[in-house]
Design a protein that fits this description.
Keywords: Membrane, Transmembrane, Transmembrane helix. The protein is mainly alpha-helical. The protein is built from 6 helices and 4 strands; from the N terminus they run E-E-H-H-H-H-H-E-E-H. The protein has a domain of 156 residues. It has a two-stranded antiparallel sheet. Helix 1 packs antiparallel against helix 2 and helix 3 packs antiparallel against helix 5.
Length: 262
């Protein structure tokens, strides 16, 4: 059964593409896994059924075991998207690039100096002419350059996948640590309720019975103030409308009680 999300690709960043931005680096890693697995299976079949195929030294045996470990770690890196599993593969590709670079310069040297002592080690027929020897070494140079470019692409895929898996891991950590947001569209604006990460004794659930059409600018119940109702009388101690005071005012203004005007 294929794990869910194994072929899920993050295509938002163009630097995680290879082959002139035509192939995602994770799919390129899948191609590398298929090629290396095929070579290891073929190597194992030859070792079992071919009598002339044997391990000549302990170093070669250790390297064969290391190749199986590399393929196994590549499969884990592809499934789990963990960059740490790519370290053996990257180390192997760096070693192969160094070896192939030395071989390529060796063939270049024999091409320009076909009668050197190094060139004589690869020439079976000593009667070959200069141009014939240069043609042979030029063919070997072309093969070594092609092999070097392929292995260099393998190394590039390894480095790009390492950065891609690191980027994916950081995004997952950011999403896990970022509080969720519940957005409610109000009448006069946009109200955003942020749920903080779960604390002891708290819940990360959005508030219940939330009216999606409520005015976000309206005050909360704790902050609202009820308007004061105005009664029939003012609560002013210096002002009174009692009947006794009204009688005194009108009696003082009766005819005859007014003081003479000078």
């Amino acid at each position: 059964m294929i794990p869910s999300g194994m072929f899920l690709l993050d295509t938002t960043n163009p630097r995680f593409y290879t082959c002139c931005r035509q192939m995602h680096v994770k799919m390129a890693l899948f191609v590398v896994i298929v090629i290396l697995t095929f070579l290891e299976v073929l190597d194992t079949i030859l070792f079992i059924f071919n009598e002339n195929y044997s391990l000549d030294s302990l170093t070669q045996a250790i390297y064969e075991v290391f190749e199986y470990v590399v393929v196994f770690c590549l499969i884990l890196a592809f499934i789990k998207e963990k960059s740490i599993f790519l370290i053996p593969y990257i180390g192997q590709m760096i070693l192969l690039n160094v070896v192939l670079a030395l071989v390529m310069f060796q063939w270049l040297y024999t091409f320009f100096f076909p009668y050197s002592d190094m060139a004589k080690q690869f020439i079976v027929d000593p009667n070959m002419g200069r141009f014939e020897r240069m043609g042979v070494f030029l063919f070997l140079v072309g093969i070594s350059v092609l092999a070097y470019l392929i292995v260099f692409w393998f190394l590039q895929v390894g480095f790009c996948c390492y950065m891609y898996f690191e980027d994916r891991t950081n995004k997952k950590k950011t999403m896990a640590s970022t509080p969720q947001e519940v957005t409610v569209q109000g009448n006069n604006g946009r109200l955003t309720l942020v749920n903080q990460p779960n604390q002891p004794g708290t819940s990360n659930k959005p508030p219940e019975n939330l009216d999606p059409f409520a005015d976000p600018l309206a005050a909360t119940p704790s902050q609202s103030h009820k308007p004061q109702t105005v009664g029939g009388n003012f609560a002013n101690p210096n002002f009174s409308l009692s009947d006794e005071e009204d009688d005194e005012v009108f009696q003082s203004r009766k005819p005859g009680n007014n003081p003479p005007i000078a």
